[in-house]
Amino acid sequence: MSPHSGPEPGDAAPVAWFVTTHWSVVLNAKAEDSVLATEALGQLCRTYWQPVHNYVRSRGQNPADAEDLTQQFFARFLEKQHYRLADRQRGKFRTFLLTSVKNFLVNERERATAQKRGGDKQVVSLDETAPGEDRPLIEIADTQTADWIYERSWATTLLAQVRHRLQAEYAGDGKGERFALLETFLPGEDSELTYAQAGECLGVAEGTIKSDVHRLKKRYGELLRDEIAQTVATPGEVDEELQHLLRVFSDKPA
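Below the sequence we write its predicted structure tokens.
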């Protein structure tokens, strides 16, 4: 199984495949595995580009600067292999990355301030500062609101990826039109379409639609767990992240 693979439907031993998920590959990588780890980390970073960008924007940056800072952050994060500073006991990539972004923005602000003052202020290098160290945040926007924006963007991006994977599976089986109709019954949808109406559109019995929707939701749940598994260090954290996902959508920024 490739490091980008997830569990197949009906897998009885999730722990067996878990060691090949993205963040687990990164955390378990040895020096000789740096290429494999960087590839897995690159996939994670692509997933988190939008949440990080939205967080940077929420800290008071204009769109152009936020774009540049986000690109700079990920380029440095990958080049310097900052993932090696991750704490396996607190292994969620989502949390680790947010802390890294905060430290990066602090350093960038200090660097900009030093330049304005003629270079009389020492810049703290990201290479010398481990993510998670107790440091002040940039005082541009409300911290709790900025964190909430990051979390909400993470949750939205995650669900979008699950939906995309599900759609691709149906399209691959020649059932793209069927998915377009059935997806209105997925969680978060606000459609008033009934099973009977869906059956009429597809020319099948209402009972068939109910069975199809049941299978669709089951597969949706499997893919959601797989997407979450890519970003945590242990199987037990998958359920924790699922609960966090629900809280993110039910909570509002402080």
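Residues 1-12, 120-140 have pLDDT under 50 and may be disordered.
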